[in-house]
Amino acid sequence: MSVSELTLLVLRLGFLLLLWLFIFGIVYALRSDLFGQRARKMQADVAAPAGAPAAFPSGAPVPSATQPPAASASAPTEQFTARPSPVSTAVDDKATSQNATRLVITSGPKAGTEFPLTGDSITIGRSGDSSLVIRDDYTSTHHARLMLWHDKWMIQDLDSTNGTFLDGNRLVVPTPVPLNTTVKIGATSFELRR
């Protein structure tokens, strides 16, 4: 085997290796887009305060001590550090199961559409298994969840890429939703109304 044949063989193997790395990168990107990022355990420096549930969905943001999300039956038990809520609103204007009866989309491709609030959790995202499917480039596969917790409607960002905004503030923890307050997910905005 001459030097030129050896060089050609090394170049072919290098090109083949580069091609396989490119293919694995594409497969990883597609898997992440279709199924979301892998859940990661969050470590806590301080134990959860008394009265706060110990189990939360994997990959969920760190909940506030006063506003933890509903526990998931299949979720692992973890402890979290309490953080203040980024949105402060009056106590009497929170959306509850008694005063909020519908979700109204105010802007985006489905503007004007209304969904009745039945008390069940509403998942929001691009995935076909979401309760409210929003297909735009700025919405993650499983973007956010709207749920009842202690009779108050709470919005929780599910570790989305572009974030969930309540009245212009990006959510860090599950937060109560006031009536007639804008929640923005991707290019779509909605409100909870009577």
Distinctive features:
rod-shaped, 1 helix, six-stranded antiparallel beta sheet, single chain, 17% helix, 22% strand, 194 residues, five-stranded mixed beta sheet, alpha+beta
Report on this model:
There is one protein chain. The chain is α+β, with helices and mostly antiparallel strands and 194 residues long. Helices cover 17% and strands 22% of the residues. It is built from 1 helix and 11 strands, in the order H-E-E-E-E-E-E-E-E-E-E-E. It has one helix at 3-35, and strands at residues 102-107, 114-116, 122-125, 132-133, 144-149, 152-157, 164-166, 169-170, 175-176, 183-185, 188-193. The strands form 2 sheets. Strands 2-1-11-10-7-8 form a 6-stranded antiparallel sheet, with no helix packed on it. The protein has a 5-stranded mixed sheet with strand order 4-3-5-6-9, with no helix packed on it. It comes from Cryobacterium sinapicolor. This is FHA domain-containing protein. The chain crosses the membrane at residues 6-30.
